[in-house]
Recover the amino acids of this structure.
């Protein structure tokens, strides 16, 4: 049985993308232009585009149009790599927009994760992590004031791990992570530029120094259309 016309057109559009004629992040031609190019009705073109949106090759941005999707960033959860380091490795220039910076009494779950004393305070920092003005990650970080008394807004506008390892001279050993799919609340959705009905990935993690001191607890929210998470599993010997 012959494929429907919209599928043939979708395949031709896919070939245009693979050939690099339609660049990542660029808006696709109008329905009128595509209708003339492929000698098909706008309804057929609409169905072809819808098929490619569902496959992830195209993406619709409400109030703006339809664009060629950029390749998802592959995040290996077995590698302890900061967002800044990850973006630099991909030759991208990250920007940290510090949305909140304050010293607080930590919530009970944070106090428990960081193994803090009764009166200990933490720095709470919310950062929007952007590349090319596009938000990729929203990060809520809690750092004990006892360990980082000179932490500042300026420091957190840069690389947290650069500050810890290069300026403080401390060696990071490892982190322990938990990945949870969630629907974002209105604040998180707004910071990531997604709808509240869009599933995202939340990673809760705490990190330790070489002497096993827990020095941070973070909750990171990743856009599922920008990231994919990989892990490598090996058979036991």
């Amino acid at each position: 049985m012959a494929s429907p016309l919209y599928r043939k057109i979708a395949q031709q559009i896919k070939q245009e993308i693979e050939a690099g004629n339609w660049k990542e992040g660029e808006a696709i031609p109008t329905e009128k232009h595509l209708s003339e190019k492929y000698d098909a009705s706008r309804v057929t073109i609409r169905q072809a585009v819808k098929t490619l949106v569902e496959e992830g090759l195209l993406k619709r941005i409400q109030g703006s149009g339809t664009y060629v999707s950029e390749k998802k960033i592959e995040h290996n959860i077995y590698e302890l790599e900061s967002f800044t380091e990850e973006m630099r490795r991909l030759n991208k220039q990250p920007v940290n927009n510090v949305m909140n910076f304050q010293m607080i009494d930590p919530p009970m779950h944070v106090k428990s994760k960081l193994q803090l004393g009764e009166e200990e305070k933490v720095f709470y920092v919310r950062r929007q992590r952007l590349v090319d003005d596009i938000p990729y990650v929203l990060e809520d970080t809690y750092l004990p004031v006892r360990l980082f008394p000179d932490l500042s807004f300026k420091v957190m506008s840069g690389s947290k791990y650069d500050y810890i390892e290069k300026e403080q001279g401390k060696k990071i050993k490892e982190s322990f992570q938990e990945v949870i799919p969630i629907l974002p609340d209105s604040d998180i959705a707004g910071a990531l530029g997604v709808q509240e009905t869009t599933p995202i990935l939340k990673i809760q993690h705490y990190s330790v120094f070489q002497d096993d001191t827990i020095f941070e607890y973070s909750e990171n929210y990743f856009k599922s259309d920008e990231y994919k998470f990989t892990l490598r599993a090996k058979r036991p010997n």
